[in-house]
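Late entry, evening session. Most of the bench is empty. Finally got around to the prediction I had been postponing all week. Sequence below, unchanged from the version circulated by S.P.
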Amino acid sequence: MIRLVASDMDGTLLDSYRQITEENISAIKELQNNGINFIINTGREYQNVMEILDKAGLKCDMLCTNGACGCDQNGNILFQHFIPRETVKKIFSIFRDFDLVPTPFSQDGRLSILSKEEMRQYIKDVMVPAMQINHPDFQYTPSDFQELLDNCIYVDGTEELLNGTHHNILKIISQSLNPDSLVQLRTRLEQELPELAVVSTVPTDIEITSKNAQKGIALMEYAKEKGYTPDEIVAIGDSENDYSMLSIPGLHSVAMENAAPMIQDICVYRTRANTNDGIAYIIKCILADRENFELL
């Protein structure tokens, strides 16, 4: 019997405008009203996830920052897995060798070692174009741009970040219009810092967390605490950072129609694209027969 549904956000629950559609909202509420737990399992940070859920009028538990942080629906911290400060220092040193910009995330949200004006240029010239290479339908409005810029916590350079005591780092990401540079960066990180988990959601980005901070590990920590077994869980995703979650033995794994080939290959089921309310469709299938779940 299905008791828990775990959903990724980008490319899965969210549409091209990074919003939850009315059809998906309605389906999630119906799922919850039928006694099935729904949780978010995403690379996004807690603050950003809460903004999206509040806008949609939804409440649920969250596994955030690729499994580095877990929070209940009221914001109470369930667990956190930080990258040690000395490891962060080594990561930044490797980034400098490739002339790439690291964007760290702490328990307080997105940090920037760039000034606000430098960040504005980085978003315009690198971040958004890198996303649009892989998602041509990706829409970024002027208000989205300004919100991202304003929601950064600006740190006065690398030294302040590394030597201060305020920020503990949960994740570091970067984007580049040159995927080869990210491949080389990833190779160095994996060779020199095996205590890290390194993934790419698309060829133009990279995400770095502690080895203990992965979506699959976080989901099973949560499931154990709540008393769920893998055969009672449906998990849905689309990209490499969902692999650890969707490859859990016995779990009902669902790939979005728009999922990367590596995700399509490991999943038992497939649902519609994120631009066609794929979450609502899979929920409809679950509610049709939660005792013997299968796609209709």
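Two things to note before I forget:
The mean pLDDT is 93.
The CA atoms of residues 50 and 270 lie 27 Å apart.
Will write this up properly tomorrow.
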